[in-house]
Structure formats: C-alpha cells, structure tokens
User: Which sequence fits this backbone?
C-alpha cells in the first residue's frame, strides 16, 4: 500500500517537475530588438510583432503599415518552442535601412524585403535561408545582411538578387556599416572584417582578431573603426590597415551595442551596467568614473540635445553630461525592457520598448513628446 | 535517557548544515537575497560556468562537455542514487509481508498503518528512504538541465541572458557562443536519431526500474508509464534542441548501469526465464528473493531471512526449496553483491 502510493507520488513528482522545467527553460521566447530610422520627415519602425510602420515624427500617427503576406513571410520556428507564432512576418534584431525612398528590412527568418516608401508596395524579396540576428545596411547600390550561416550577403538594392557573399567562420550578428566603399562587420568567430564592396575581398591583410565574439556593430569615424567585443574589451582599429590603435581593457562584461561619437570621445554601453566615455585618440577614460545604469546596457546610446542618452535593460532612460558623465536627468516613463538601439533625430530620441511601444523624448527638456503602441 | 542525551557527541557537520540553512533563511526573510538568487548562486551558475569552461577545453565541443558534466554530476550523486535504489529494493523485498498485513487488517486501516510502520521499524527500513535521496537529487537534475539549455544560447536573447550568469573570467566569457555542432548533430535543433535513442534508453530504464506487482491497477499503471514517459521525451527530443537529448541519453545510460548494478535487469528479464534461473514458480516472489540476497540496507539481516522463510511458507512452496534459497542468500551476503549475482546464475 505504502509502496504503491509512494511510487505513484514519486513518478508524478518527477513528471511534474520535468514538465515545469521544460516549459520554463524551453520557453525562453524570442522577441527580438527592432529598431527605428528616419528619412525626410518620416520615421520607419520595425515592430515586435513583425511589421514595418511609417510614422509622423511630430505626433506618432501612422502613415502606413506593412507586413509580408502569410505565404511570403511567417515564423519558421516551431510554436512549441514558444517563439511567437502570432508574428506577422517574424522577428527583427535591428533597424530598417532607408535609401532613395526604399525601405529595406531583414526578418530573423532570413527573408529580406524592399518596400517602396511612397506606395508601400513590395519591390522585391530575397530568402537568405539562414537566420538573421542583426540589421541591414545599404550603400553603393547594395544591401548588406549578415546571417547565421556565417556569411555576409550583398544583395542588389534594385532587384534583390545576390551579388556576392563573404564567408566567415561563425555566425554574423552585427549590423554592417558601409563607409567609403568598404563594409565593416563583426563575426562570432572573434574577428572584425573590412570587405571592399567592389572587389568583394578583405581590405586588410587579415581580419582583426579579438579575444571574443564580435556582435556589436562597428562605428567608423575619421578613418578609425571603433567596436567592442565579447572579450570585455573595446578596440580602435585603423580603417585602412586594420592595425590596432588602442584597446580599452577595463570593462566587466561584453560590449554588444554600437558606440556613439562626439567631439573626440567615444561613448560605449556595456553589459556590465556601465557606460564608458573613452578618448578616441588614446583609449583612456574621459570621465572620472563610468556611469552606472543599474542594469545592462544593450541599447546603443545616442547624442541628442547636447546630452548623451542611454537606456538600461530595465527601461530607465538617462541623460548624461557629455564631459563629466554626471546624470542630468532620468526618465522612468518606460516601464519595460529596452534592448533596441536608440535613434536620435535633432533633439528627439526614439525608444523602442519591449512592450512594442515607441516613445519620443525631447533630450533637452527630457519630456515625453508622445508614445504610441506599435500594434493594432 | 537524559544522560544519553548529555553525553551525545557534538556533530560538527550537522551543526554546519543547520548554520548554513539558518543563514540562508535569514537572508531570504530579510530580502537580502531571493530564491532565484540562491538557486543561481548555489547551483545553476557554478554548473553553467563549469559547462562553458569544459566546452572550451574539451576540443571546443559542447557535446562532449554535456556528456562529461552529466557523468561528473551523476558520480557526485552516486551515494544518494545508490541509497535510493537500495531503499527502493528493500521496500520491494517487504512487499509480500505487507500484502499479508493488508489481508489480515483489511477492515482496520488504523491497525494496518500501525502494523506496517512496526514492520518497517523492525526491518530497519525507512519507508521514505527512497524518496528523500530522490528529492535531494531533483534540484541538481533541474540545474543541470537548465545549464545545458542556457549554455546552448541559440537565440540572441538566450545569449544576452547568459551574459548575466557568467563569472567575470575572460576565459569563460570569451568562450561564447559555444560550438553547436557535435558529430552529425546541430545541438540547437531537434534530431530524429537522438529522439529514437532517448525513447529506447528511457524505455529500458523504465522497464528495469519498474517494480513487479500483482495488483492489476498497479500493473496497468506500470504499463502506461513504461510507454508514456519514453514517448513524451521522444517528442521533446524531436522538437527541442538535441543538446538536451544528448543529456537525457547520457543520463539514462548512467542510470541503466546503476540500476543494473543494484537490481539487475529487473522486469526486463522474462518471467519464465527468471523462473528457470531462480527456481521459484511465483514471479512476484522472485524480486523479493533476489533483493534479500543483494540488499544491504536492512539493518537486521537475520530478521529479513526469517521473513523470507515465513513468506515461503505462506506461498506454499516446498520448505526445502526455500531453505536452499535462504542458504544461498546467507552465503551471498558474505561474498558481496557481485558474488551474489553470479551465485544465482549458477543456480
């Protein structure tokens, strides 16, 4: 009697605990971190539910709303893994790119689309057949996208056809950056690459090797490439030769966001909860001490209204003095996570939050201009 | 009695355990730490970081790291596992006697409970003896499972979450993300072959560990469990990352080995075959006889033998045959568990 009950009880406990563990651990759902850009007087926003919106930057009203048809896009991941089967076209891990009135977006599913900003008609689509965990870049008539098959794909901006590919030894999660006919991007194989857009070959003798994966997008200013790595270090590399200019070694966690630049100073957010101001010339700390944001800083910082605007993972937004790093203001109107890159246009900062809202904040007065939900 | 208490030696280990539990409880109540924080600090983070570290040094292979960590954790828990298996076996050995009590006191549940507990006490068997070691092992299994799935970090969000749990060592931090490829497997996606291996290994383990029962309800439940668990995990193996299947298969194989060491093939052996081997016509009595021969948990060996003899009488088997079995058991006890198994096979 006792044994039978005990056996049943034990087995029930085993099954229940395993199932709970499976649900809790296996359901580490993907949500993405979609971004925002603007061209002319229109904001183009990728949303958490897999759509692209055009908004009026003055009041946040929608101009148009685009999503791929069910046949074209769709979430490829199994709904059993809690990936979010209700998504219109999949997830975004970056901002759209806009050039000559065309909006380019890459879904996590590997589908890349070009949308006419005036008519909202889809110009083309291309399936990379590999997941995309970064944003897109456009330059020299070419759209650049990195994917998990380790390739940087160069697509014709006019028709979406594949022009060429550059293969690395691991997944490419960075949003590439195109400057002066060279595309810069990092790979999880620990390297930073600079590839000539015309020749499709590495510009340097060899890629720049770091001690960890490179998932942060590089920042190119005055012939120097600035970027952080998963080895807890921040690097400055000569854009022409690929030689290291300096390294900032004092961070306590990974760098996973693009840095900002202003007047000879690099501002880099880090997953160690800190924001560092580094002298662009010699790699030394500019502020007496780094700013402590309280939780990890994944969203790329921006400069607007004469202040450095940073957002922490828990949704706190700070305005910092560019020279001293002192907190000038704090905005706590975003009550959810912020992981998407911040976007600045004039004095206004746009913040995509993880509850699928877009906030417009005046960086000078630190007042919220508007906030709109990005889902219907 | 009071004197005995006064002269009881001071148990340092017990004192330290209580002190640790007390400190943790005080910190929890004071809000200094959270349950999640305690879980992460004590179990998950060390296991996770060790797994990442091993991945870096075992040929950069996350697959090998999963297998090695599973083996290490199972070895560390070996005393608990063995205690659980042996307690389970001892309980199984008492079943015939408990059945007798159930028949005898069918109309008096209170008396039945008292007599059952009395029997346990006499035989030196703790009825919860197999439950406690299992309960202690649960958190470790779950932490191991969590560390495998978190170290896989197959989405950017997973990797971001993982960054919070890694130690600040550059060696560990620079190892990520881990190499997801092992043999033919992409450890981040499901695999049909691993699903088959999971089903087969889990079925074998279930079959070996299922206690034979004459109760039709229990038999029916055993049959369901025999198939439901393996098929359920087979489905998980198809849909969840195969890194988890690798952990399940490695863990099942270790469990099968341990189960074999303690109870042999269990119900995996055909009843007719065990009849020929062990010389008893009652399938339900076989495990009891074998358990008597191999278990070392019963404190009072003499009483166990007496129990077996009385059970033999109630079963109606010839007294000579039963005496031969008990004699065999006594000699086997002297030889040790290996000798016991070999001795039986010779019979």
Assistant:
């Amino acid at each position: 009697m006792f044994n039978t009950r005990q056996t049943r009880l034990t087995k029930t406990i085993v099954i229940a605990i395993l199932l709970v563990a499976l649900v809790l651990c296996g359901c580490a759902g993907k949500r993405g971190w979609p971004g925002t850009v603007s061209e002319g007087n229109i904001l183009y926003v990728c949303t958490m539910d897999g759509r692209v919106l055009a908004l009026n930057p003055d009041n946040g009203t929608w101009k148009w709303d685009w999503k791929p048809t069910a046949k074209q896009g769709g979430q490829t991941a199994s709904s059993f893994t809690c990936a979010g089967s209700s998504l219109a076209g999949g997830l975004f891990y970056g901002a759209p790119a806009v050039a000559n009135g065309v909006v380019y977006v890459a879904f996590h599913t590997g589908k890349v689309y070009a949308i006419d900003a005036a008519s909202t008609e889809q110009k083309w689509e291309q399936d990379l057949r590999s997941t995309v965990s970064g944003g897109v870049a456009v330059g020299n008539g070419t759209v650049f996208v990195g994917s998990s098959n380790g390739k940087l794909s160069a697509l014709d901006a006019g028709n979406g056809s594949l022009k060429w590919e550059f293969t690395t030894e691991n997944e490419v999660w960075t949003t590439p950056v195109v400057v002066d006919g060279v595309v810069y991007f990092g790979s999880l194989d620990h390297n930073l690459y600079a590839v000539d857009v015309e020749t499709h070959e590495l510009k340097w003798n060899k890629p720049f090797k770091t001690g960890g994966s490179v998932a942060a997008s590089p920042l190119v200013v005055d012939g120097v490439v600035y970027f952080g790595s998963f080895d807890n270090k921040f690097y400055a590399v000569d854009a022409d030769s690929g030689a290291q200019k300096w390294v900032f070694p004092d961070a306590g966690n990974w760098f996973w966001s693009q840095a900002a630049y202003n007047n000879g100073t690099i501002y880099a957010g880090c997953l160690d909860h800190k924001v560092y101001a580094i002298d662009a010339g010699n790699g030394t700390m500019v502020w007496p001490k780094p700013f402590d944001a309280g939780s990890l800083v994944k969203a790329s910082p921006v400069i607007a209204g004469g202040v450095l605007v940073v957002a922490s993972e828990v949704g706190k937004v700070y305005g910092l003095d560019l020279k001293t790093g002192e907190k000038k203001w704090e905005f706590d109107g975003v009550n959810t996570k912020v992981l998407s890159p911040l976007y600045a246009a004039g004095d206004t900062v746009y913040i995509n939050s993880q509850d699928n809202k877009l906030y417009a904040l005046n960086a000078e007065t630190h007042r919220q201009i508007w906030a709109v939900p990005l889902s219907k | 009695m009071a004197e005995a208490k006064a002269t009881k030696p001071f148990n340092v280990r017990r004192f330290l355990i209580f002190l640790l539990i007390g400190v943790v409880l005080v910190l929890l109540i004071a809000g200094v730490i959270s349950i999640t924080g305690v879980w992460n600090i004590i179990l998950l983070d060390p296991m996770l970081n060790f797994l990442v570290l091993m991945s870096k040094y075992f040929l950069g292979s996350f697959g090998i790291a999963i297998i090695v960590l599973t083996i290490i954790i199972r070895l560390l828990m070996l005393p608990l596992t063995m205690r659980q298996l042996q307690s389970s076996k001892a309980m199984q050995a008492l079943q015939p006697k408990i059945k007798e009590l159930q028949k005898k006191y069918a109309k008096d549940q209170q008396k039945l409970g008292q007599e059952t507990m009395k029997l346990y006490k006499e035989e030196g068997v703790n009825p919860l003896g197999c439950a406690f070691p299992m309960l202690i092992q649960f958190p470790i299994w779950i932490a191991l499972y969590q560390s495998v799935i978190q170290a896989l970090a197959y989405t950017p969000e997973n990797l971001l979450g993982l960054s919070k749990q890694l130690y600040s060592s550059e060696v560990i931090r620079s190892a990520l993300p881990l190499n997801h490829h092992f043999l033919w497997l992409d450890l981040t996606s499901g695999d049909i072959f691993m699903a088959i291996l999971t089903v087969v290994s889990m079925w074998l383990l279930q079959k070996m560990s299922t206690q034979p029962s004459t109760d039709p309800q229990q038999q029916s439940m055993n049959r369901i469990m025999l198939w439901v668990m393996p098929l359920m995990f087979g489905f998980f193996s198809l849909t969840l990352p195969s890194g988890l299947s690798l952990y399940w298969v490695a863990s099942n194989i270790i469990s099968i080995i341990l189960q074999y060491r303690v109870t042999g093939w269990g119900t995996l052996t055909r009843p007719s075959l065990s009849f020929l081997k062990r010389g008893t016509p009652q399938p339900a009595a076989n495990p009891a006889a074998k358990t008597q021969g191999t278990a070392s948990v019963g404190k009072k060996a003499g009483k166990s033998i007496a129990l077996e003899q009385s059970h033999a009488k109630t079963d109606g088997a010839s007294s000579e045959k039963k005496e031969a079995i008990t004699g065999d058991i006594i000699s086997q006890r002297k030889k040790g568990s290996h000798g016991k198994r070999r001795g039986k096979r010779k019979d």
